[in-house]
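Question (not urgent): is this output format expected?
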Amino acid sequence: MTISTACPCGSGRLYAHCCGPFLEGAALHPTAESLMRSRYTAFVRNDVEYLRATWHPATRPRDLAPDASTQWIGLKILSTEAGGPDDRQGSVEFVARYKLQGRAHRLHERSHFVRDEGKWCYLDGEPNPAQVSAD
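Got this back:
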């Protein structure tokens, strides 16, 4: 990606000023959401090494081989809980849209993040979390 390319994470910022520094190892994530966005961008780029490096060692799968034919087409952050610069854990609920073999799909997940040795890491995810209604 070039410096003038919009970041795939949907932030509206340029890649070079958004997820680029994280994927290039030039910056540490200040929040769980910034890690979530950069991991989405890594899936877009099929950057398996970055995904492995940002996955907590206790839950990281041995073999991580995303389907390179997946076409990621959008990320929407629905909510965040904690995960700020001074927090030790946090969660981000999101919907990621993608196409696989020409068919559209949605991944709805609440991802859990923790700080490990000062760095945010993806711990695990809760697929299709229950919606809480505000009655």
